[in-house]
Amino acid sequence: MTSLPELHPQLAEDCIELGQLTLCRLLLVPDANYPWLILVPMRDSIREIHELSEDEQQQLMRESSLISKMLVDDFNADKVNVAALGNVVPQLHIHHIARYHDDAAWPAPVWGFCEALAYQENELAEFIAKVKTKLAGNFQN
Fold it and tell me: How many domains, the chain?
């Protein structure tokens, strides 16, 4: 059995791992200001999308589209911001942030706009359950 590449310590500290898709780990940023998920390809030493094989790039796009569609369909996002910045955390990770016309930062980028808002315990559990239920057929064991 092969072990998963380690998550960058900042991702491990800041996020909650929800499961594994075909290519990526799915992480939750626990900021109740916005439904915010992150895909992290399970490949060692990858910093940029172009470093993935062509098949992996296509799989990343499929998984990214799946997450984006879920945020629109199931969380009623007005817009989904998708970004792979990597300025602070070099490990390739792709943010998927549900945005609303009335959210705390709209229409500005979310980074540094306001303090993270902790989920209430029951809200966090409901959010995680909703994501896991919606993606149940896509998670790897």
Answer: 1
Residues shown for the chain? 141
Instruction: Write the CATH number for 80.
Output: 3.30.428.10
CA distance 86 to 66: 22
Domain that holds residue 59: 9-134
What pTM, to 2 d.p., does this model score? 0.95
Task: Kindly tell me the burial class for residue 86, based on how many C-beta atoms sit within 10 Å of its own C-beta (0-12, 13-18, 19 or more).
Answer: middle
Q: What is the DSSP string of 37-96?
A: EEEEES-TT--SGGGS-HHHHHHHHHHHHHHHHHHHHHH--SEEEEE---SS--S--EEE
Per-residue pLDDT tens digits for 90-131: 999 999 999 999 998 999 999 888 899 999 999 999 999 999
Phi, psi for 39 (deg, rounded to 5): -100, 130
